[in-house]
Automatic annotation (TrEMBL):
Positions of the FAD dependent oxidoreductase domain: 21-380
Enzyme Commission numbers on file: 1.1.5.3
Listed name of the protein: Glycerol-3-phosphate dehydrogenase
Family membership noted in the UniProt record: Belongs to the FAD-dependent glycerol-3-phosphate dehydrogenase family.
CDD domains reported for this sequence: GlpA-like_Fer2_BFD-like
Organism whose genome encodes this protein: Polyangium sorediatum
SUPFAM superfamilies, sorted: FAD/NAD(P)-binding domain (SSF51905)
Length: 571
């Protein structure tokens, strides 16, 4: 596995002239993972995130904690570490995980029987990794058995393979790591953009990190000697803030998009192939179905990554060859993220390595600055452990990693959803979703409801989300807007697209943050506009007409139109 080229000199932790021992820049899964691990080992940590926790790839991925069988041939270490970390994540956050069984059809063409045997042998090798992630071994299935398991399958197939993976909500994983770090003393600064990494002119050592609050407009400074650049696809930009050449933290950004459908269309995830022979899938995911994913080089604005109608058609075409029902299903949105893949010139996008790398910029005359490049959601914890091991050596502390043993917030004990529903006097489905998102921390939300029974009211019926949960994530998980609440609770992510709940959520956020009521309505309008933009590329003519009427009605009801907002309010 790639290691730092050079090692920064050892430094003294808890220096009186430093506000914190290290500043982590980036609130994705790698950044929050390092913040948690470093805090657990006794270091003083600050985490700065420009937008929101899980704003980038960590909150806009396939939601799979999987080994990735396709990586076995070129990146076997990626498969091994991903499977091992999947097992650890199941141990520390059992409430977040759900099993995702896959079916892989084998087309009856050419040397189909030989191909079938080769695929069987390939998955026998993958079976060796299954114990690491508590997965089931693969099974060889006939065409008839495939049809029995998933009646919606079509096409001329000789049979297929079943194999086992796990799903997780990446945004919830980021929030849990940040909460744990915060409860251990870390400073979590969300909505703050780093403007400069100050370094000494003579030695190049880090002196401080200067930042600006994007919402309030104020500025701040954190004195420190160590900075972790965990900004994913933004890594070259962040490096340049410390007078480090962007090429020293180079990535090859790869755009991946997903299409979201309004219900579970099938019981198994089904692998498919696109017209250019890339592997894609359709999968049940939480209350919905997703189709993914593209893998294309991206050169645009990293803060405005969206799916296009061409990308949607590309995915639907591939899935329809094995699951034609997708043509009649109702798409309710799309989402997109950019992978911070290790840079390589020449290989096709989907053949780039998913390995990760720690760059010690002491080799570039910037001691104390590190960049975390590459990686996968499935192996975030081990990447964070490796980075924190480097920090432990730098600060000469002997504390070992325990993030694979100690549960994340909510993962310490199981909660009976039926009992919780009776206690809160809410629907059992609402209680089950609450437990899935918060684990044992759902009991804290139940305590709010017992003290304030009116907070049991449902704000979002699609997910569903209660008023108490909205207030909880604003108070304890750094949510500052309707979009932030949606990222943590999935409010407005269902079939209605937020049209029935965004306004009420905006009111609650404004109350909790002591904002003017109009700001809550503006937040709701911005959220609805963005949701409409993600849906537009996946809609047919009839659904688009219905969409336009619905949006017009909601705008009239709110009395606020995002077209009336100036750039400062919309930022």
């Amino acid at each position: 596995m790639p290691r730092p080229v050079n090692s920064s000199a050892k430094v003294e932790p808890r220096r009186s002239d430093h506000d914190v021992d290290l500043v982590v820049i980036g609130g994705g899964v790698n950044g929050t993972g390092v913040a948690r691990d470093a805090s657990m080992r006794g270091l003083r940590v600050a985490l700065i995130e420009r937008n929101d926790l899980a704003f980038g790839a960590s909150g806009n991925n396939s939601g799979l904690i999987h080994g990735g069988p396709r990586y076995m041939l070129n990146d076997p270490n990626v498969t091994a570490t991903s499977c091992r970390d999947s097992g650890y994540i199941q141990r520390i956050a059992p409430h977040m995980l759900h099993r995702v069984p896959f079916l892989m059809p084998v087309e009856n063409k050419g040397r189909a029987k030989i191909m079938f045997a080769l695929i069987d042998a390939f998955f026998e090798a993958y079976d060796r990794y299954q114990p690491l992630k508590r997965g089931k071994k693969h099974a060889l299935l006939t065409a008839e058995e495939m049809q029995q398991l998933e009646p919606g399958l079509r096409g001329n197939i000789v049979g297929g393979i079943s194999f086992d993976e796990w799903g997780i909500d990446g945004a919830r994983l980021c929030a849990a790591n940040a909460v744990d770090a915060g409860e251990r003393g870390a400073r979590i600064l969300v909505g703050c953009t780093v403007e400069r990494i100050e370094r000494r002119e003579d030695t190049g050592e880090v002196v401080a990190v200067h930042y600006r609050d994007r919402r309030k407009g104020g500025t701040g400074k954190l004195r420190t000697g160590t900075v972790i650049n965990a900004t994913g696809a933004w890594a070259p930009i962040t490096a340049s803030l410390g007078r480090i050449a962007p090429t020293r933290a180079r990535v090859r950004p790869g755009k991946g998009i997903h299409i979201v459908y309004d219900r579970r269309l099938l019981n198994y995830a089904v692998a498919a192939q696109t017209i250019d022979d890339r592997q894609i899938f359709v999968a049940p995911w939480q209350n919905m179905t997703i189709v993914g994913t593209t893998d294309d080089d991206f050169y645009g604005d990293l803060d405005e990554v969206r799916a296009t109608s061409e990308e949607v058609r590309y995915l639907v075409q591939g899935v329809a060859r094995v699951f034609p029902q997708i043509h009649t299903a109702r798409a309710i949105g799309t989402y997109a993220g950019v992978r911070p893949t290790l840079y390589a010139y020449g290989p096709h996008e989907d053949r780039l390595s998913r390995e990760h790398q720690i760059i010690d910029h002491a080799a570039h005359d910037a001691p104390g600055v590190y960049s975390m490049i590459g990686g996968k959601l499935a192996s975030y914890r081990i990447f964070a452990e490796e980075m924190t091991d480097v920090l432990a050596a730098r600060f000469d502390i002997g504390a070992r990693c325990a993030t694979h043993e100690r549960p994340l917030p909510g993962g310490d004990k199981p909660v009976d959803a039926i009992e919780l529903a009776a206690r809160m006097e809410i629907d059992p489905v609402a209680a089950r979703r609450l437990v899935f998102r918060h684990g044992s921390r759902s009991l804290h939300i139940a305590e709010r409801v017992q003290e304030r029974p009116r907070e049991a009211a449902t704000v979002c019926a699609c997910e569903p989300v209660t008023e108490a949960e909205v207030r909880h994530v604003v108070r304890t998980e750094w949510a500052r807007s309707v979009s932030d609440v949606a990222r943590r609770t999935r409010l407005g992510m269902g079939a209605c697209g937020g049209m029935r709940c965004a306004a009420r959520c905006g009111q609650i956020v404004a109350q909790e943050l002591d904002l003017p009521p109009r700001e809550g309505l503006q937040q709701a309008a911005r959220f609805l506009a963005r949701q409409a933009q993600t849906r537009a590329v996946a809609l047919g003519p009839e659904q688009a007409q219905q969409e336009a009427l619905a949006i017009a009605a909601v705008r009239a009801e709110l009395g606020v139109d995002v077209r009336d907002l100036d750039e400062g309010e919309a930022a």
